[in-house]
Every structure is written in structure tokens, then in C-alpha cells.
Amino acid sequence: VEAKRQQEAKRKVLEAEAKRKADAEAKKAAEEEEAKKKSAEDEANKAEGGEEKRKLFATDGTGRNVKAKTSAGEKSKPVIGGYFEGQTVYAAKNITVKGQIVVKNHAVGTVVGPSETNPSQRIAVQFAKRE
User: Fold this and answer.
1) Contact (CB, 8 A) for 86 and 67
2) In the chain, what are the domain boundaries?
3) For the chain, which terminal residue's Cβ has fewer other Cβ atoms within 10 angstroms, N or C?
4) Where is the region Disordered (predicted)?
């Protein structure tokens, strides 16, 4: 009788251990599947964002932006700061990169759209002449 009890207890312990292992494997598989889904979504978002950036900064062979023209009296898409895409703007000061002046004060530029790096606070401007 005692041997049967010990054998039954051992069987229950083995069953519980097998169940824990199966649960752990199922949880691990679910986490891996979730990670794969998230990775696929991130890749899709990255590709979509890259496509939008390419459209935003698309140029023809002359270096000019390729944009849909707006008809007379129709305003283009507004961007942060009250500017509109295609609006002519002027540099308020010399713009430097690593100590080199790349755009001089009062240089003429055109608003391209929101900034690629900080679209909620900056705009992208294409200047007609760069140094």
C-alpha cells in the first residue's frame, strides 16, 4: 500500500513537471510569435516611412522638387509655424554646418514640408543657392 502511494505521488510530480515544461514552452512560443509580429510591423512601418520621405524629398534631374501643383487660389498643405508647402522663405541668419557657412543670411528658399527629423517643431526648406 505504501509503495502504491509513493508511486502515485511520484507520478503526480512527474505529470506536474511535464505540465510546467509544456506551459513554459507554449509561453516561449507565444512570446517568439509576438516578437516576430512586432518585428514585421516595425519593418512595414519603417518601409512605409521611408517611402513617405522619398516622396517628400523627391526631385527631378535638375534638383528641383517634384510636387503636385496647386491650382490658382488653392492653398497648399499647411505645416508647423503657419508656413505652407511651396511658400518662399528667406534665411534669417547664416546657417552653418561644422563651422562652414552653407546658407547665407537672406538666402531665398522654398518650404518643402515638415522636417524629416523633428516634424512637430521644424520645417524642411530647400534653398536656391548653397555655398
Assistant:
1) yes
2) 1-56, 80-127
3) N
4) 1-78
